[in-house]
Task: inverse folding
């Protein structure tokens, strides 16, 4: 089956002869076992509410089908999915290699939390490729990639990282949130684990938080499951339901985000206020060749480096926007634009651009209206004095 069909056909109820199209929201802490033998039997799919019920299993099956993995488990947020997928494989004395372009709270979890338990984190240049081997040590247990990078959009050489990690006996974990699971398949490129902030494209409507962790094989899946079990992770059935509901339209949404974002990125690249557009499908984005090789499309999120302007001008720009909301997160149906500061989240590399960096999420509005919104904001920026 192609992705478009998988997203419709998987995670559906199978009760015959009469059942609803979608799985129901199954709210439960307690599941009752019909007999003593059933109670004793291990290895069943549904045991206790914290470990998920039928609604959770349906979503997990859909994500597993999309990513082409062995098994998916859910987490209550994208951040916890990332954190659990690191925590699962390390103990005191181990080392994790993390891309310098990672989502900042992922960095902080390693620097501030894992460090307290004797786990060392080394950040690497997102463009390192096979030179990652120079950072590998016998105690390196996880290599973490996020492609393209948060805020700065470097596309990583996932197959090269996978082969270095495999050779060194480490797991490669990839945050695949940007591609929505539609435009890149890290497990087929050699990754062991793929995580999503399902909060973004999978759920797609800016109204729930959820994370997914998909493992390539049974042993990896068991390790992830044990980590989630032992930290007491739980996802509400309502959020699992909303996410699966969102996934039914994931494919056409991703195509629409792709089309409009590319149009806006190209329009922005021609604006006199713009220094550079960091959109993986454009040559100006670092790692564009890897995007061309490993991705089948591009989502709605990209960056723009403006030519240097004053604070008052930036303020005027943002206050003029009507369709682009100013808010964290992304991946919903609505467009967003925020002022970001990549220079604050770097240690292995330096962010050298002088002008302000904007992060755009292009939603499902008509792109003509979005362009008109930006035109008005640029005009106000121009008419405002620098300060
Ligand atoms: C790339 C990436 N990974 C993970 C997360 C964390 O997801 P959540 O907000 O669901 O915890 C985010 C959130 O912005 C993200 O952008």
Result:
């Amino acid at each position: 089956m192609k992705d478009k069909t998988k997203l419709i056909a998987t995670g559906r109820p199978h009760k015959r002869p009469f059942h609803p199209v979608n799985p129901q929201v199954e709210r439960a802490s307690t599941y009752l076992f019909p007999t003593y033998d059933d109670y004793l039997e291990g290895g069943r799919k549904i045991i206790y509410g914290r470990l998920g019920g039928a609604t959770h299993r349906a979503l997990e099956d859909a994500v597993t089908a999309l990513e082409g993995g062995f098994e998916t488990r859910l987490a209550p947020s994208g951040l916890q999915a990332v954190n659990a997928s690191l925590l699962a494989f390390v103990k005191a004395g181990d080392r994790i290699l993390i891309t310098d372009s990672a989502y900042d709270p992922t960095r902080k979890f390693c620097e501030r939390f894992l460090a307290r338990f004797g786990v060392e984190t080394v950040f690497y240049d997102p463009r390192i490729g096979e030179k990652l081997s120079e950072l590998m040590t016998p105690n390196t247990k996880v290599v973490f990639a996020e492609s393209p990078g948060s805020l700065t959009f470097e596309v990583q050489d996932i197959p090269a990282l996978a082969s270095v990690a495999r050779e060194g006996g480490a797991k490669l974990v990839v945050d695949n949130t940007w591609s929505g699971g539609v435009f890149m398949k890290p497990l087929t490129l050699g990754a062991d684990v793929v995580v999503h902030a399902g909060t973004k494209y999978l759920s797609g409507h800016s109204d729930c938080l959820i994370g997914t962790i998909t493992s390539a094989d049974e042993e990896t899946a068991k390790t992830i499951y044990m980590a989630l079990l032992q930290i007491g992770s739980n996802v509400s059935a309502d959020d699992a339901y909303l996410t699966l509901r969102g996934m039914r339209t994931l494919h056409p949404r991703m195509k629409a985000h792709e089309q409009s974002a590319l149009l806006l990125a190209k329009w922005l690249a021609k604006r006199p206020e713009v220094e550079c557009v960091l959109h993986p499908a454009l040559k100006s984005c670092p790692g564009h060749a890897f995007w061309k090789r490993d991705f089948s499309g591009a989502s709605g999120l990209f960056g723009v480096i403006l030519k240097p302007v004053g604070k008052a001008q930036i303020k005027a720009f943002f206050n003029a926007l009507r369709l682009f909301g100013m808010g964290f997160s992304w991946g919903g149906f609505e467009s967003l634009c925020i002022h970001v500061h990549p220079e604050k989240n770097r240690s292995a590399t330096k962010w050298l651009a002088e002008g302000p960096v904007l992060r755009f999420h292009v939603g499902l509005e008509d792109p003509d209206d979005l362009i008109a919104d930006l035109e008005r904001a640029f005009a106000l920026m121009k008419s405002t004095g620098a300060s």
